[in-house]
Amino acid sequence: MSASNTKTTSKSAAKVAHESKPSFEQAYSELESIVAQMESGLMPLEASLDAYKHGNALLELCQKSLAEVEQQVKVLNERQQLVTFNAENE
Predict the structure, then answer these.
(1) Phi, psi (deg, nearest 5) at residue 47
(2) pTM greater than 0.70 (yes/no)
(3) Structural domains of the chain in order of their starting residue, each with its CATH number
């Protein structure tokens, strides 16, 4: 991998980390789009690698969002009322 490709990949990862956090729905939609593009088999290798890395970051965001919602449901079930879940307090 060339230095310029490494910089591009680093910028892509940094872009995901520093941009405003997309909603679950936005991240999931973008992840579906990335998967469809990759499954088409028409992406060059470097683009596939970048797409995979970006998709992995989106997947982690979606998994974290789902885990937080699941925790809220558990709190609701235990207390019979919905209480806002705060990840820092757990």
Answers:
(1) -65, -35
(2) no
(3) 22-89 (1.10.287)
